[in-house]
Design goal:
By secondary structure, this protein is α/β, with parallel strands linked by helices. It is built from nine helices and twelve strands.
Length: 256
């Protein structure tokens, strides 16, 4: 039986009076590729950011490899863990964002090496070897010493993915990684993610690319107004949605 990597129970997140996540339950098994779909504002990105502790959450628990993320309970009080402990936990997940967030004054290799040297305390030669391996893996072997300004948007996003994966995370989070790209560059990034999925990497993908979600994911989660409205096998969900809300969403999406 596959091991549970991520276990979310009763996750609640509010911004002032606005409740964005309203008690989300979700379990992710090792090797699963889960696409998270839904309209803008449904809570998809917020959920990813809570997993990576980029957002505080007000209720529920998130456990990664059996370890509770972000908070601990003292008696009846719920307290945030130390920043050092949160930084250690954050390193268990990798995250690629809509924006590439590369350092413009560093080459592709140096961008990938930075976390390995600063966080994992690797020697430069060791970090360089890992950076070159992953840049080659995402099709950028000839661009390792290029600066972000010398790379296309698709190439920059592939550097950002290599940077996250080089840290050897237990779980990889992708947040709309193709939304800032020109249409002709989307395919090259999705191809990289397909390859990682084929390698058995555990992934959560927030995406608006419905055809891609259909083809690559082992499970789809449809979020609506802060809750998981429907989830299951993509072949069934996309062809025979059980809820009217998902049927409506698919009609207006790029899936056809």
């Amino acid at each position: 039986m596959a091991k549970t990597i991520l276990d979310i129970r009763g996750l609640r997140k509010t911004y002032g009076q606005h409740e964005v996540l309203k008690g989300v339950d979700c379990a992710v098994q090792e090797g699963e590729v889960i696409a998270i779909i839904g309209s803008s504002g449904s809570g998809k990105t917020t959920m990813l950011r809570c997993i990576n502790m980029l957002e505080e959450f007000q209720g529920g628990t998130i456990s990664l490899d059996g370890e509770e993320i972000g908070y601990h309970v003292e008696g009846t009080a719920r307290r945030r863990k130390s920043e050092k402990e949160i930084a250690r936990q954050r390193a268990l997940t990798g995250m690629a964002f809509q924006q590439f967030n590369l350092f413009p004054h560093m080459t592709a290799a140096e961008n990938v090496m930075l976390g390995l040297i600063k966080v994992k305390k690797m020697a430069k030669f060791e970090a360089r070897a890992i950076a070159e391996t992953w840049l080659d893996r995402v099709g950028l072997a000839s661009r390792v010493d290029h600066y972000p300004g010398q790379l296309s948007g698709g190439q920059q996003q592939r550097v950002a993915i290599a940077r996250a994966i080089a840290m050897a995370p237990r779980l990889m989070l992708f947040d709309e990684v193709t939304s800032a790209l020109d249409p002709e560059l989307v395919g090259e990034v999705l191809q990289v993610i397909k390859g990682l999925a084929a390698d058995g990497m555990t992934m959560l993908l927030v995406t608006h690319e419905m055809r891609f979600a259909y083809e690559v994911s082992s499970r789809v989660i449809f979020m609506n107004q802060g809750v998981i409205c429907e989830e299951g096998n993509p072949k069934e969900m996309f062809v025979r949605p059980k809820t009217e809300r998902l049927a409506e969403f698919l009609k207006t999406s790029s899936f056809n």
